[in-house]
Amino acid sequence: MVGRIDPPDARPIAAPLAAWQPVHAAAVRLDAAGHLVFHDTAQNDYHLIRISDPAFEAARLRLTVTLRPTAACNVEFHVNHWGGVDVCRISRFGDIIDPGISEELDVAVDPAGRLIVTVAFFNTHPTVSLGTSHGPGGRYLGRAQDQFVFEQISLVVERPEELAEEDRICVVDVGAAGGLQGGWRARRNMIRPIAFEPNPTDAAAIRAELESINGGMVIEQGLFSQDGERTLHITRLAGCSSVLRPNAALLARYAIAPAFDVVEERPIRCVRYDTLHRSGDVPQPDVIKIDVQGAELDVLHGFGGLLAGCLAIELETHLYPIYQGQALLGDIVAYLDRFGFSLRKLEPQMSFDADAVEYNAYFTKRPDQLPHPAGRARTKLATVERVWQVTTSPAGGQLAAMALNG
Questions:
Q1: What is the pLDDT of residue 2?
Q2: Is 363 within 8 Å of 341 (Cβ atoms)?
Q3: CA–CA gap between residue 281 and residue 366 (Å, rounded)
């Protein structure tokens, strides 16, 4: 069971099994008992059934599904949030494989082998989708066979929990083109987003979404270690642009090199985050996400002592200098260690042929370094860990016990 949140009010949605329509690569039929037989087709796609209702958007939903696996079933039951976000993934035996963005999740298995799944989650789209998967994200090559039989699906719309301002997670997104990432988009009732995007076109594209979320802000400036103007090197592939110049000598090793060709240089205004904080323009961050192509450590320097009150940091970083003069992962690990952060997870970004060059790195504050009040910090950090899917391994303690016990 994932933490129960009692709904202040609820409205059941009357939706018979026949109202759930197959989408993407799924196929369904009603059997003699009126149950919905779910079939995945031999396509590499989502395999889902879906219903739509405007009431589903910006609401907390409670979904209860009674289903049984067929004799040939070899996939997972999957509840999907629009945008490829996993609400939850459940094995055909009833094991919770991934709780996803669920706020509450319970799975029971009756003597006949039926699964009774109850999941509550915050939804940001006027659709609800469920079906099958074979790994994270939902897309997979279907088996072209009947997988589950849905006997009952019930859905209740609940008013989302209202959080006090101090209980919301302040997410500072530096280099925010594209808007909120999926995990945060599906928890927008729990956050206040502060986005920095110096490109006016990209900033305009995300402003409507972010400024509608709990006092969110979009600031058309870059962040750096010093206040003042910097030169932005705009590259052939816009996502490779940086205030640092690409390292052409190293990039020449890789097929991606032409993406880093500089096609324009443009001045941009940069500021330290703590400068804006001192003037009361931005809040203390809880979570910082940085995607600035090599200038990550410079941006971190600009937060100054505010990093002591921060809980988690996600950034793109490198093991080799693809930009001139950039700090590498080891430099960033050493710097953040001073503020009580541990590196929790690395995700490779395989854009450099066969070489391990670029990673998404996830840092969280060590338990003994949490800012006060520690209870609120632990609650927020638990949400961050679920969004990022970082866990604590018991292996070290097990090995220590083995050593101590001879």
A1: 36
A2: yes
A3: 28
